[in-house]
Amino acid sequence: xREFNTIAVCTPEENYMVDLTDRIRKIEMLVDKQxxxxxxxxxxxxxxxxxTALTRYLAxxxxxxxxxxxxxxDAVFEDECSFTKGMAQVLCDTRDSMEIPIADACYDQFMQLxxxxxxxxxxxxxRIFDKWCKDNEKGIVLMIDEVxxxxxxxxxxxxxxxxxxxxxxxxxxxKYKTFQSVILAGVTDVKHIRNRLRDDxxxxxxxxxxxxxxxxxDMSLSxxxxxxxxxxxxxxHHTGMDTxxxxxxxxxxxxxxxxxxxxxxELLDKNVTARFESMSKAWTSIGIDEAVKLILSxxxxxxxxxxxxxxxxxxxxxxxxxMLMEGTKIxxxxxxxxxxxxxxxxxxxxxxxxxxxxxxxxxTMLYNLFLSDEExxxxxxxxxxxxxxxxxxxxxxxxxxxxLERFIDTYTEICGPLTDRFRERDGRxxxxxxxxxxxxxxxxxxxxxxTRDQTRTDVIVDYLGQQYIIELKIWRGERYHxxxxxxxxxxxxxxxxxxxxxxxxxxxxxxxLE
Length: 514
Fold this sequence. Notes:
- By secondary structure, this protein is of the alpha/beta class.
- The chain has 19 helices and twelve strands.
- The protein has a four-stranded parallel β-sheet with strand order 1-4-3-2, with helices on both faces. Strands 9-10-11-12 form a four-stranded mixed β-sheet, with helices on both faces. Strands 5-6 form a two-stranded antiparallel ribbon.
- α1 (21-32) crosses α2 and α3 crosses α4.
């Protein structure tokens, strides 16, 4: 039986996975055009799975040499000699273990190079490459995965420089034979790496990989693709799920981030099914909410990587906090290194020239992170919500009206009259701090990104299978209030609900609390 997989490369024989044929065909077009390029995407975004599928797809047309820089230790990058011998050894080892198509004569030369006692340079390696490409019947495609481990080493940049030189020779002389295509894969966009300055007069600042083509192929998983994967699962397990509806909801939570898609499905298949004691109950909207709750409680390697990278950019971290808590707009700037790096790491995306968190799960993870910072400070709202949580649940349902009434009482008691300081953060953050311990363990929440702005925020709470819509807004008068009621009515219709809640923060000194 196949299974969902989140810890290694996925293959269609062993795993349920989205059909990658369309993506692979688009990459094939780049290879056919003799392009050199980098597949740079965030961690656990399906890069290695894509390379594996591409290797199989191209095998009849080209000889594909697929290497992994995880097989190379740091010592190999000390100098040209170490790197030349190390690369030669990796090529031999990979042919022995993975049966990559290296001709016997070239294999013998690589093996001899790996045992050479004299000092070697990169040219010794590339002379073999030149002869290999010239004599080989098929075009040779070189793929190197996990290039991040090498990106900070000068000798790797020199290696890229030699590949660039060969590429330019072919541009000048079509009879010159070199690699059909070179594909590098990693988180870092090698195209924008600059040579580290040397001490000699030949210092260079431009990237040796500036000949690489842009790789703009969408590697997120589409709703249609997720449905196809679920259809295969359904044909094996007969859960009775509505695969179209489940695919739509998974896509809404993940924005197609491959790890998150697979992790939700993996948890539904194993953990949630075990809790519900029924596959038919697990593969539902309620089951997805349960799986998301489990993901958000994990300290998985993806979350660890994202928070580490965010902490390395304290100014942007503060800006994203302001964006989430206050609705502050951050304009996308492709020349801003911090923004580009966090996009590269998968945390944010460009949405019509505005910075947005990449998906709903990451967004809730960040909310939890920022709120946790306040909880550790013994925030009064969080403490009051924890103390009062037992009174808000009746017959398994959340009494949201009572939650709002008690929050108003708590806010008035702690903060007194509203002041201009509220406009920065108080209302939204304090309400979420109050709400979080109440639903913790039995529910999720998220902020509807389509409606968040400086004057209005929709909070959607999923609690034991029930949904609650709460609109937070600043009072702007009766006319604006009526427009808000109309908007929330339309929103309730979309979610097929009959009851919603509106919490207005009114700065008028003479007002009634309702």
